[in-house]
Amino acid sequence: MKYVRLYGFAHKRTQTQFEVTWAELKDALPVGKGSFVLGVAGERLLLDGVAIETGQAERGFAQLLTASGLASIQFCSDVAPEELKYPRK
Predict the structure, then answer these.
(1) DSSP SS3 for 76
(2) Average pLDDT score over residue span 24-32
(3) What does the DSSP 8-state code read for residue 38?
(4) Alpha-carbon distance 73 to 33, whole Å?
(5) Domain spans in the chain, listed from the N-terminal domain onward
(6) Phi/psi at 61 (nearest 5 deg)?
(7) Predicted TM-score (pTM) of this structure
(8) Tens of pLDDT along 53-83?
(9) What are the CA-CA distances from residue 25 to residues 35, 42, 84 (Å)?
């Protein structure tokens, strides 16, 4: 999200980060469940409603989500990369 805001989605740096993030997201989706919800509560990240241990990077991400007006994001195994390129509020 940070690179998209800074450079736009067509920028090489944004594209590279998106590809890395997409691969990590696909690896993180639980087998059989097919989805998870990443949420924010203050400076804490929640995974399916449970607070996870966070460091500075995770707190920064939580702050970025909050500043963007996002309280949670649901990730599903049937989402295509193109659907993440143009998020809507």
Answers:
(1) strand
(2) 77
(3) E
(4) 16
(5) 2-85
(6) -65, -40
(7) 0.65
(8) 888 988 888 998 898 888 998 888 887 777 7
(9) 10, 23, 12
